[in-house]
Design a protein that fits this description.
Strand order of the largest sheet: 9-8-11-10-12-13-14
Shape: elongated
Bound molecules: acetyl coenzyme *A
Radius of gyration: 25 Å
Strand content: 15-25%
Number of strands: 19
Distance between the termini: 28 Å
Largest sheet: 7 strands, mixed
Helix content: 40-55%
CATH architecture of the largest domain: 3-Layer(aba) Sandwich
Number of helices: 16
CATH superfamily of the largest domain: Succinyl-CoA synthetase domains
């Protein structure tokens, strides 16, 4: 059983520093917790209040009648040690310290002090210097970020607070489903490896995404990440990739961003997928969270535009994936309904005359063909066909073919209508992107993960033999 079980599935949560004033962090955290629907006991703690947001308030942790599994702390730094002593005496298991003003500003002594107190009582610390955490299966949103996080399969661990909050908002806008969002800040105690150990076993989590500036214990991270990779993909955005970036990271969370080459070797050894940009990481995470893994490497690209097909072919090739001709059975099927000048190579180019019906038939044929393992569908908006109609044809085809049983990514390229079509596909859990390169990159990440996982498996087997 993971040590963090009670952090993610607590029976009760106290908010120390729950404020009476809307807009203050302690107020907003309490409001999110209540309004997101947490069903365990909620205990606001504030000596100056009797009740906040309709919930009875307690003057201290020790005054709470029931047990407290998690205490969220949002009071100024200098008062935190005293509250931790109380939390320890109360038998609190996890303290989530939102407060800033520790190691990140050179206040190492105060950070060491809180770690010492927590250790003495056997409590685990998340933070300090964080925006809180979310765990959708338990309906916990204990953050001062956006409230309506969409439940789903992505666990997002972030060392940056503000960026993390902003990305929380982006997941909502992009319709991405989240299992957890964990702000780790200074990582005084709980670090990435602890969280990976939890998410590896967590059936609600399909993929783990980490925004990382530095890691506390590199060896442990490699070991735990390798184990996690065997069960689900781990994507890392490693910031501080340059000397200048590393310096910025040091003054941000006090992280030692370290030698870039060492990090990259460690990621390679542990089978972690490294994303350069936030956009790339989120594109990949979306695909992993919704799609099954392919059974083989027979990838087919279906398009109505040659250029989009070429861009896709290039992106795939840059990622070591070369397209082979499509199976003859599929080419013969598609030949029946496309114009005679269509290309039945790979990409299959149905030409600018492609209709919704052609998309429906081609996508369904590819989905049902046992010689096809994965599909990239591209659509360039022409006046012949409405993008939303194409999106709807893709959704119908996948339903009629018995659901998404092989990975499918889509790119709808165009203006406002293309954006509407992407939204529709997203709502139906089919990853869709506005450019062919992004769709191809997401598919390439899936194949890369399979390769990395094989390498990790082999390495672990060899280690066992030693
Ligand atoms: N026990 C319980 N309640 C207490 C205690 C205590 N020991 N001491 C104070 N309180 C109450 C206060 O009375 C107040 O309630 P009120 O507003 O109803 O009067 C409430 O707790 C908060 O205390 P304040 O002194 O008003 O503190 P404030 O809210 O101004 O600041 C905070 C506290 C938010 C923790 C601040 O010190 C801090 O660290 N801010 C930065 C947080 C942050 O940015 N974290 C990183 C996030 S990531 C990112 O970058 C976005």
């Amino acid at each position: 059983m993971s040590e963090l079980r009670d952090l993610f599935n607590p029976r009760s949560i106290a908010v120390v520093g729950a404020s009476r004033t809307p807009g203050k962090i302690g107020y907003e955290v309490l409001r999110n917790l209540i309004e997101y629907g947490y069903e365990g006991a909620i205990y606001p703690v504030n000596p100056k209040a009797n009740e906040i947001l309709g919930v009875k308030c307690y003057p201290s942790l020790l005054a709470i009648p029931g047990e407290v599994d998690v205490a969220i702390i949002s009071i100024p730094a200098k008062f935190v040690p005293e509250v931790l002593e109380e939390a320890g005496k109360k038998g609190v298991k996890h303290v989530v310290i939102i407060t800033s003003g520790f190691k990140e500003i050179g206040n190492v002594e105060l950070e060491n002090k809180i770690v010492e107190i927590a250790k003495r009582y056997g409590m685990r610390i998340l933070g300090p210097n964080i925006f809180g955490y979310v765990y959708t299966p338990a309906k916990i949103n204990a953050t001062f970020g956006p409230r309506d996080v969409i439940p789903g399969g992505i666990a997002f661990i972030t060392q940056s607070g503000a960026l993390g909050i902003a990305l929380m908002g982006m997941t909502i806008l992009k319709g991405m489903g989240i299992s957890a969002i964990v702000s780790v800040g200074n990582k005084a105690d709980i670090e990435d490896a602890d969280l990976l150990e939890f998410f590896e076993k967590d059936d609600n989590t399909k993929v783990v995404l980490i925004y990382m500036e530095g890691v506390v214990n590199g060896r442990r991270f490699v070991k735990v990440a390798a184990k996690t990779t065997l069960r689900k993909p781990v994507i890392v955005i490693k910031s501080g990739r340059t000397e200048a970036g590393a310096k910025a990271a040091a003054s941000h969370t006090g992280a030692l961003a370290g030698n870039v080459a060492i990090y990259m070797t460690a990621f390679q050894q542990s089978g972690v997928l490294v994303a350069k940009t936030v956009e790339e990481a989120f594109d990949w995470a979306k695909a992993f969270s919704w799609l099954p893994l392919p059974k083989g490497d027979r990838l087919v690209v279906i398009t109505n535009g040659g250029g989009a097909g070429v861009q896709t072919t290039d992106t795939l090739a840059e990622n070591g994936i070369l397209l082979n001709p499509p199976p003859e059975s599929l080419a013969n099927e598609i030949r029946k309904f496309v114009p005679p000048f269509a290309s039945l190579a790979n990409p299959i180019d149905m030409t600018g005359m492609a209709t919704e019906d052609m998309y429906y038939k081609a996508v369904r044929a590819a989905m049902e063909n046992p010689e096809v393992d994965s599909i990239i569908i591209l659509y360039c908006h022409t006046v012949i066909t409405d993008p939303v109609g194409v999106a709807s044809a893709i959704i119908r085809a996948s339903k009629d073919a018995g659901g998404v049983t092989k990975p499918v990514v889509v790119s709808i390229i165009g203006g406002r209508e293309a954006a509407d079509a992407i939204k529709m596909l997203t709502q139906n859990k089919i990853p869709a992107y506005p450019t062919p390169e992004r769709a191809a990159s997401a598919m390439a990440a899936i194949y890369k993960y399979i390769k990395l996982r094989e390498q990790v498996k082999l390495r672990l087997q060899q280690l066992e033999k030693l």
